[in-house]
Amino acid sequence: MVFVEWGGRWRTLAFGPIFCGIALVIELLTGPVVHWIGLAVIALVLVGFTYVQVVAARRHATVRLTRDMLQQGTEDVDIDEIITVFPEPDYEKTGGDPERWELARALGELSGVPRKRHGVGLRLRGGGLVQAWAKDEETLRERLTELVAARKQDSA
């Protein structure tokens, strides 16, 4: 792996039971009634809902970059298909207007770049523009640029 960014973290599952544990300690220290079963059920329900969210985030918002493949959620792009990795947009040059690649479709099956992630412009073989995306888009852009340049050198 050259770059990996997981869409969701498994440790998130622990938050619900931790909060229920804190509520249990407060009930033990302050009152005559302790809701053992209620807190256990609430903890299980929170784990269930959180599990669904983590699985969905890991499936649809994970970024993996290897020497041969860029995986954006459920879509894979072969590195050989990438011709250009665009630099970070310079809004002073464009007068605040977005670059053409910023209006292109985002990779993956989501309707756009996932929340809390930023786009990286790519030109694919055949001339199509797309947006790769990551939370740490600078590192993704840097690694993609290195891989594309290395492929161009190898083919020359």
From TrEMBL:
At the top level of its lineage, which domain of life is listed? Bacteria
The residues that cross the membrane are: 12-30, 36-57
The UniProt keywords, alphabetically, are: Membrane, Transmembrane, Transmembrane helix
Q: What is this protein called?
A: Membrane protein
Native species: Rhodococcoides trifolii
